[in-house]
């Protein structure tokens, strides 16, 4: 870990305590003990991962087969210098700069019904952050079959420049939460503001679940 001069000489536990000083009271220990798996490391996944890393979610599993392209940079949390890198590798690199005190598992793999158990079974909460509707449907069906008691947080509908107020979180059934406006599609274009809003909804729901809040 690179240590800026302003904090040199401080013990790691002192640094971590100060980093989490503004967390909600009595939340840090529960967050530190949690394990969240994020399926997808694009516009949703990269923003969700950063939010969870910053507040101190102790273990993150990142799964995505893709590499960073120039067209990703208008909404995904990567840098020009990282174009061409596997998304999970670059995201892990960025997260470790935000919070070096958490554990990050990064897998450059494509999730299928046959591999979901391998990569997601150890997580407390599964987060869906795919682009393609068919991938979302696949994860919904497979996770519901293989892990019916495990919370699944998803998103659909964050494209365009529509009102931010149309993005909400809904609980469709026990252990299933979906954020977004439910209607807008990527065909009309995807940009950082609405994607980040939807990602924030997902990250906030995950945080609530970790802290024992199961309602929206």
TrEMBL record:
Pfam name, any one: ThiF
One MF annotation (Gene Ontology) recorded for this entry: ubiquitin-like modifier activating enzyme activity
Repeat listed as a keyword: no
InterPro entries to which the protein is assigned, alphabetical: ThiF/MoeB/HesA, ThiF_fam2, ThiF_NAD_FAD-bd, Ubiquitin-activating_enz
GO biological process terms on file: cyclic threonylcarbamoyladenosine biosynthetic process
Ranges for domain THIF-type NAD/FAD binding fold: 26-213
Alphabetical keyword list: Nucleotidyltransferase, Transferase
Statement: the UniProt record of this protein carries the keyword Transferase: yes
UniProt protein name: Sulfur carrier protein ThiS adenylyltransferase ThiF
Gene name as annotated: thiF
């Amino acid at each position: 870990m690179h240590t800026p001069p302003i904090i040199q000489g401080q013990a790691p536990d002192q640094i971590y305590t100060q980093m989490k000083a503004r967390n909600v009271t009595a939340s840090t220990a529960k967050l530190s003990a949690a394990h969240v798996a994020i399926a997808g490391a694009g516009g949703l996944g990269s923003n969700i991962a950063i939010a969870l890393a910053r507040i101190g979610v102790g273990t993150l599993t990142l799964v995505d087969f893709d590499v960073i392209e120039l067209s990703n940079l208008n909404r995904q949390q990567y840098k020009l210098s990282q174009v061409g890198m596997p998304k999970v590798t670059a995201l892990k690199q960025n997260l470790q700069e935000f919070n070096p005190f958490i554990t990050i598992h990064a897998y450059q793999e494509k999730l299928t019904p046959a591999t979901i158990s391998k990569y997601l079974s150890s997580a407390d909460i599964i987060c869906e952050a795919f682009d393609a509707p068919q991938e979302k449907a696949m994860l919904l069906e497979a996770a519901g079959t293989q892990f019916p008691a495990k919370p699944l947080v998803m998103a659909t509908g964050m494209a365009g420049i529509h009102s931010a107020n149309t993005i909400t979180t809904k609980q469709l059934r026990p252990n299933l939460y979906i954020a977004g406006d439910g209607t807008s599609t990527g065909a009309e274009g995807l940009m950082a503001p609405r994607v980040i809003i939807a990602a924030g909804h997902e990250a906030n729901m995950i945080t609530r679940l970790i802290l024992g809040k199961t309602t929206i």
